[in-house]
Amino acid sequence: MRFVDEFRDPDGARSVAEAIAATVTRPWTIMEICGGQTHAIVRYGIDHMLPDTISLLHGPGCPVCVTPAGIIDAACTLASQPEVILCSFGDMLRVPGHEQSLLTARTGGADVRMVYSPLDAVTLARENPTREIVFLAIGFETTAPTSAMAVLHAERDGLTNFSLLSSHVLVPPAMRQLLADPTNKVQGFLAAGHVCAVSGYRDYHAIPQRFGIPIVVTGFEPLDILQGILLCVRQLEENRADVENQYRRAVRHTGNRYAQAAVEQVFKVQGQAWRGIGWIEDSGLALRSRFALFDALNRFTEVHVSPERETACISGEVLRGVCKPDDCPMFGNLCTLEHPLGATMVSSEGACAAYYRYRRVSGAA
Amino acid sequence: MMSRPGSHGSCPVPVHSAERIEIGHGGGGKLTQRLIDTVFRPAFAVSDEDLTCDSAAIGRSEFELAFTTDAYVVQPLFFPGGNIGSLAIFGTVNDLAMSGARALAISAAFVIEEGFAVTDLNRIVETMRDAASRAGVRIVAGDTKVVERGKADGVYIATSGIGEIGSRALIRPQEVRVGDAVIVSGDIGRHGMAVMAARESLGFEPPIESDCAPLFGPVSALIDGGIELHCLRDCTRGGLATALIEIARCADVTIAIEQTKIPVSGPVRGACEILGIDPLYVANEGRFTAIVAGGDAERALSILQRHDDAAAIIGMVGERDGSTDAKIRTIGRTRALDLQTGEQLPRIC
């Protein structure tokens, strides 16, 4: 498969791993932002190909993991109303709120449907004029454009039965917050390639300038990640702090302007709560007042997003790179894929799920 | 509802509308009889003798018999490469084949939703007839129940099958030995992705077709070829990974496979990449894994490749190491294969 096979070539991977080993002279800690990268690292054993001096930390880039439990609660409450069809992405349905997940709400009679795109939810609204279609809109810069397009299509079609329960988040504010934390260990970032394919990486230049750490825009295949690490390590060894683009086959400096324009038209930036991390200024997207009709919390004024509750789960520390999944005393015994205690174990992109699924047999290949 | 001509003054007798299934089609009366006469009997060529009895006589066998049963619930009912009917026949034939048994006879029970189109039922039973013919098995008994509209999803089919085990060798997980080779009979993941694409109208190009097919042909070729065959498992729900884990647990061994050797077609790989789904866990309906003596591996492969050139030796059986049932070697390390938790759901981005 073009653009995939060549980036999974074992010989190519070994050769880049050797180049990393030949470059590194000191210990470095690098964070991969995206949960998809975390899964590729653990699934293919990329971390085992690196010298011991390179530590990888898993970042907050799993869209499911950082969606607040209160939003799930609100989605479940909405779904239980007889006139509502609640739609979201597949892997969102399993994530627990404070009380239940959308899948458990469905077993209780709620009309919850999996869609592949917010535009499918708009189609559902068109086909079901007597029902209220609510799309639980989550995710980073990657998914926000299609949510925006869904609202624009609904408006164009004059639909009055479609709304978003919006919990979109933005990556750069989270990176800045991590770096500003006095406990921060991150010395270099692998930025999420898919996010940058949409947003570009113009906004990323301010981060190395302010914090003095390199950022490499990186893809998701094993060779992408190893090449990203190599570029990052070279910068660190040379005491440089720039933004570099490893993922050139997908990412341009300016990103996808059409997608950006759609997001800009529909959403405005505001502060947002992240599950396990807390409030991050300017890290969320809210519908502009012109689109208030399409805001589920505006339509269903009796539904509220409850504040996060204390939990024994340490997913917040995992998402901030403070600790790794297997540092948690509950990992693998009280907390498993079958009985997850937190979103990082539930989500298909969560770091705990990756460790649980892929790291229970060791041994280099 | 129409009444029979000339029946004025007496209770109206419903007459088959020939378009939609009615509750009365499952009532055991004239509508049921009409359904049997116009739909099932022409398709399945059931004998008059069979119809007069509550069970079918299927003859004697000098061999040990195998018996299996399964229920089929699939949406959509029709998908590229098959429908619920071919699935039901091949599924049962293949369950028997995995014991080295040639299917002799199958029964089929239908649970049909009121309002279901008779033309669709005809398409399903005709496919079953063709599938049975291809697999060399007779459909000898059946049943029909009709449930109210909204109480079922079109049609459910439950089948049972009986077959004879010609081989004297035992083919079961307990026979698996350290040093055995693990072979897969073709490329994996087609059926699950074909059904998902059809269900969700995903429109992959080129379209993915189910691998739905009878498996006794390649199985008997292995047996006839004198291969020391220790275990067979069709890779249906849960896919290849689940089949290997179940075999390893049962045989108390570890099965180690190589990621790079697992055959997955380009379209299936592409669809799995897009949706974030692991093809190792995707259902197949025409693929099996064979565990054969290490020394017979290459010969077994060449026999299987005559049926499907994508067949491949993907790994081997090792000592139980206490940590895992099955593992897979990837680029940088060896990792555990685990049973899936619930259904695989497409990822967000």
UniProtKB/TrEMBL annotation, chain A:
The keyword Iron applies. It comes from the Bacteria. One of its GO terms (molecular function) is iron ion binding. Transmembrane segments: none annotated. The keyword Lyase does not apply. InterPro entries: Hyd_form_HypD, HypD_1, HypD_2_sf. One of its GO terms (biological process) is protein maturation. Keywords: Iron, Metal-binding. Belongs to the HypD family. This is Hydrogenase maturation factor. It comes from Pontixanthobacter gangjinensis.
Automatic annotation (TrEMBL), chain B:
Pfam families: AIRS, AIRS_C. Belongs to the HypE family. Gene3D superfamilies: PurM-like C-terminal domain, PurM-like, N-terminal domain. Residues 177-322 form the PurM-like C-terminal domain. The gene is hypE. It comes from Pontixanthobacter gangjinensis. InterPro entries: HypE, PurM-like_C_dom, PurM-like_C_sf, PurM-like_N, PurM-like_N_sf. Residues 58-165 form the PurM-like N-terminal domain. This is Hydrogenase expression/formation protein HypE. It comes from the Bacteria. One of its GO terms (biological process) is protein maturation. PANTHER family: CARBAMOYL DEHYDRATASE HYPE, HYDROGENASE ISOENZYMES FORMATION PROTEIN HYPE.
